[in-house]
Specification:
Length: 240
């Protein structure tokens, strides 16, 4: 729990800082291009797409919703209800702790057609690990999901948004693609949740073709606004 919170705080500092000069942490930045895409995400894609790492997708008609699942805060069932009612499939990035503690919710995600992604067995920052430790961090969760749920993961999201070229290359050898994001807000501070209407407006205005939204399921705000966000993005012409 504490480790996840600290990583989220680190990611918060990086989130609005733009494309990092060093391979330390990812942030999409505040500036946007003519297609409303964050220039940090575009720069990242140009630099690291060769490593099967994505901050954007090439489908400019589609937006992908993703949720990071570090721990359960009582909102995931409602989020799943909204996704079911709106006929939207999302990607849920699980830590090992979540996969082990929340079998009912994990099985529901699978049964309702969502994709499960790998967020690391212990939520460790990959650049600090050896190649062998990276393999253990990713594949121990991969193997657990396969044996316990019959589910084979294929996408990885780096904890804290931390990466370097060596880690991205290693991820490829493990059969994974790496997904970052191109839209997010400060939603992980459970004792300081953002105001719902302002968050809805911000996330709606951030829409762009090929977007990947990063959301956290611990957020009361996200649970409240998700249905309206989906409606707004569809009204703007996007497929989710």
């Amino acid at each position: 729990m504490k480790k996840i919170t600290l990583c989220a705080a680190f990611a918060a500092a990086l989130l609005m800082s733009g494309f990092p000069a060093a391979a330390a942490g990812y942030g999409q930045g505040k500036e946007t291009d003519a297609q409303n895409r964050p220039t940090g995400a575009v720069s990242f894609q140009e630099a690291y797409g060769q490593y099967s790492a994505y901050a954007l997708t090439p489908d400019d008609s589609r937006i992908i919703l993703t949720f990071d699942q570090g721990y359960e805060n009582g909102y995931t069932a409602g989020i799943l209800d909204t996704l079911r009612d709106r006929h939207v499939s999302a990607i849920f990035f699980l830590t090992g702790d979540y996969a082990k503690r929340e079998p009912e919710l994990v099985r529901r995600m699978i049964a309702e057609g969502h994709m499960l992604g790998n967020h690391g067995m212990t939520h460790a920052a990959l650049p600090s690990l050896s190649d062998k430790e990276i393999e253990t961090e990713i594949m121990s969760l991969h193997d657990y999901m396969l044996s316990e749920y019959g589910y084979e993961m294929q996408y990885f999201r780096p904890p804290c948004g931390e990466y370097d070229a060596r880690a991205l290359e290693k991820i490829i050898t493990l059969g994974y693609k790496t997904l970052f994001w191109s839209a997010a807000h400060v939603d992980w501070q459970t004792d300081a949740q953002p105001e719902p209407q302002a968050s809805l407006e911000k996330l709606t205005e951030a829409a762009h073709g090929g977007a990947m939204y990063l959301l956290h399921s611990v957020s009361a705000t996200n649970a409240e606004i998700l249905g309206s966000l989906i409606d707004n993005l569809r009204a703007a012409g996007y497929t989710l």
